[in-house]
Design a protein that fits this description.
heterodimer, A: 290 residues, alpha+beta, Uridine Diphospho-n-acetylenolpyruvylglucosamine Reductase, domain 2, Uridine Diphospho-n-acetylenolpyruvylglucosamine Reductase, domain 3, five-stranded antiparallel beta sheet, three-stranded parallel beta sheet, globular, B: 173 residues, Ubiquitin-like (UB roll), DNA polymerase, domain 1, 2 domains, five-stranded mixed beta sheet, 31% helix
Chain lengths: 290, 173
């Protein structure tokens, strides 16, 4: 399959890319291309112009800025999976990156491309919700910061404007007392998350003092099951309590249904994987396992 | 719309430099097969699933059906044709030969290039690590066990002979 014809543009700075995005009608940004090119081959997307961000080196950097981990939007999944800085300061994100696609996909695909595409079954959104990420978007009027809770707005939809470029993902450091885990039930053919649950919790005296959970693959967009989080904060960390709380993980969600998993089955998997992810995160955070 | 502007690209494939004017929509796998005539890189699913089109691009295994030729401008590329040197098989080729790692052979070029990516990052992988590393490559003949054995053979041979898994023509270190 070959995509429909388009004009190709290769800016060397974010500034140039922004100008092209304003000047060229219906232009699309090309990051790693692992979501966009398949869509173009199937003619589900036919952009007349592609703006390739691949030669803007500044967008590929991963750096620690005081207690914030700054990940350039063009960092590949492999760069994130293998970065010592990410493994130390945001182990949940490194773990999640290592579960995206396969080796070749992780070499080419980027975090910015993935989150801007916002596939409802993508892996990152779960971890980014659990890690309280922020997104930096550069637009014609300068940069703005979008909180993760406001970012994923629906199926393939985000809070980004058409003339903005996502440049950075920013994460507060996971401190030493925070345990985390990302568990997914992968679709056996595609590897996408039928259900993916990321949990990060800070333990204090055997009780979760702070907990954030992100769930992907289940609803139109990734979400936090806030009822589950609220039930667990400050309570003794026991398998029974966690299981009871996790039973609420799919409540109030318009659960996806497809040939592989009915909504009932997917909701069941959501409860099971929420329990497992929270238990594992708790154990990694220093809670005793029973 | 009018015919889009062609772009000039320069690539180094298996150590040889090429320069061509290409249409932006030309995929890397078609560039390798139809412009350069390097048909060892196969087109299987054409949907980023099967891994038959895997090549090494600047030291990284990628699926060439999901990369535009223009994106590869300036890159070093290694295809299956660049594995053997001076009539000497690369250890991964030797492994597939000795351990019967192929039946029909369609997936083999992609398997071998994905395998050397695994070995470049982990010279002594467990069977589980090999299987996990080959997640993106499908074989419909072998049931995979002989492929895993082939990769293990190559790992041993590379360690014994102290060779780089990805030969320098692929942009590997």
């Amino acid at each position: 399959m070959i995509p429909a014809a388009f004009e190709y543009h290769r800016p060397s700075s974010v500034k140039d890319a922004l100008k092209m995005l304003q000047d060229l009608p219906d232009a699309k940004l090309l990051a790693g291309g692992h979501s966009l090119l398949p869509l173009m081959k199937l003619r589900l997307a036919n952009p007349p112009h592609l703006i390739d961000l691949g030669r803007i080196d500044a967008l590929r950097q991963i750096r620690a800025d005081r207690n914030i981990l700054v990940i350039g939007a063009m960092a590949s999944h492999w760069m994130i999976e293998s970065s010592e800085s990410v493994k130390r300061h945001a182990p949940l994100l490194a773990e999640t990156a290592g579960k995206v696609g396969d080796v070749q996909v992780r070499n080419a695909g980027t975090i910015g491309g993935s989150v801007a595409h916002a596939d409802p079954a993508a892996d990152y959104p779960a971890a980014l919700l659990a890690l309280d990420a922020q997104f930096v978007a550069e637009g014609p009027n300068g940069p703005r910061v979008i909180a993760v809770d406001d970012f994923f707005t629906g199926v393939f939809s985000t809070a980004l404007d058409a003339h903005e470029i996502l440049t950075e993902v920013r994460l507060p450091f996971q401190d030493a007392g925070t345990g985390s885990a990302y568990l997914k039930f992968a679709h056996p053919a595609s590897g996408f998350a039928v259900v993916g649950v990321a949990a990060a919790l800070r333990m204090n005296g055997g009780k979760p003092a702070r907990i954030r959970i992100g769930i992907t693959g289940v609803g139109p967009a990734a979400y936090r099951p806030k009822a589950v989080e609220e039930l667990l904060v400050g309570k003794p960390f026991e398998a029974r309590t966690v299981a009871e709380a996790a039973n609420l993980a799919a409540d109030g969600v318009d659960v996806n249904e497809d040939l592989f998993a009915s909504s009932e089955y997917r909701a069941h998997l959501t409860r099971v994987f929420t329990k497992r992810a929270v238990m594992l995160a708790g154990e990694r955070g220093g809670a005793r396992s029973e | 719309m009018r015919t889009p502007l062609k772009h000039s690209i320069t690539v180094r494939v298996n150590g040889a430099e090429y320069r061509h004017e290409v249409e932006p929509r030309l995929l890397l796998v078609y560039y390798l097969r139809e412009v350069l005539g390097l048909t060892g890189t196969h087109i299987g699913c054409d949907t980023t699933s099967c891994g038959a089109c895997t090549v090494i691009l600047n030291g990284m295994a990628v699926k060439a059906c999901t990369v535009l030729a223009v994106q590869a401008d300036g890159a070093e590329i290694l295809t299956v044709e660049g594995l053997a040197k001076d009539s000497q098989l690369h250890p991964i080729q030797e492994g597939f030969w000795e351990e019967h790692g192929l039946q029909c052979g369609f997936c083999t070029p992609g398997m071998m290039l994905a395998a050397i990516q695994i070995l470049a990052r982990n010279p002594n992988p467990t069977d589980d690590e090999i299987r996990h590393g080959l997640d993106g490559n499908l074989c419909r003949c072998t049931g995979y066990q002989h492929i895993v054995n082939s990769v293990r053979y190559a790992a041993r041979k590379l360690r014994e002979t102290n060779q780089e898994a990805i030969p320098s023509a692929g942009g590997g270190r």
